[in-house]
Amino acid sequence: MAQQISDNPYLKDLGLELLSMENGTAEVGIRLQEQHMNSWQVMHGGIIMTLLDACMARAARSLVPELTSAATVEMKTSFFQPGGKISQHIVARGRVLHRSTTMYYCEGEIWNGDALIAKSMGTFKVFRRNDIARRLKMTSSKHLQVEEQ
After folding, report:
1. In the predicted model, is pLDDT for residue 16 greater than 90?
2. What is the pTM of this model?
3. 111-130 mean pLDDT
4. What is the mean pLDDT of residues 60-84?
5. Where would I find the H helices in 30-113?
6. Band (67; pLDDT cuts 50, 70, 90)
7. Mean pLDDT across 111-122
8. Is 13 helix (H, G, I), strand (E, B) or coil?
9. Are the C-beta atoms of residues 147 and 86 closer than 8 Å to each other?
């Protein structure tokens, strides 16, 4: 049964649904609407990237219940064919390939029915707290740095 993916306003506004999340795997779905289309009237690549990011991060978080968030460290995606048209239901499937203490290495795929649309590999750093933004500050070299507590 689909449920709201999170309290993240960006993901909520896109209409992403969490279809499943357990044992190092996750599925995220979306019913395509006009705002998800590019100028050729097929699913925008940014929506594909967001779906892949969300499903891989959820797959990582599924292994440790107290994890509250995951930050994308690196992501590489290959696009195979146009994603979909208005009213089609798209599913992103993610799974964890390997993990260390705080880093998770995942893969994700975008499916439109039985058509593979895109595939991605991603690295995620996981957190046990969701207030990480409060601790970030800009350094003089314009790089983000986490303050020590």
Report:
1. yes
2. 0.85
3. 91
4. 91
5. 45-61
6. confident
7. 98
8. helix
9. no
What number of other Cβ atoms are within 10 A of residue 148's Cβ?
Answer: 5
Tokens of 85: 């048209």
Between the alpha carbon of residue 43 and those of residues 36, 51, 85, 135, the distances in Å are 6, 11, 6, 35
Q: Which pairs with CB-CB distance under 8 Å and at least 24 residues apart come from 94-98?
A: 94/25, 94/26, 94/27, 94/28, 94/52, 94/55, 94/56, 94/57, 94/58, 94/59, 95/24, 95/25, 95/26, 95/59, 96/24, 96/25, 96/59, 96/60, 96/62, 96/63
Q: What is the DSSP pairing of strand 89-99 with strand 103-112?
A: antiparallel
Residue type, 65: P
Instruction: List 63's β-bridge partners, or say none.
Output: none
100-112 burial, b at 16+ Cβ within 10 Å, e below that, comes to eeeebbbbbbbbb
The answer to whether residue 64 scores a pLDDT higher than 90 is no
Percent helix, percent strand, percent coil in the chain, to nearest 5: 20, 45, 35
Amino acid at 108: G
CB 54 within 8 A of CB 28: yes
Q: CB-based contacts of 8: which residues, under 8 Å, 6+ apart? A: none
Rounded CA separation 145/19 (Å)? 34
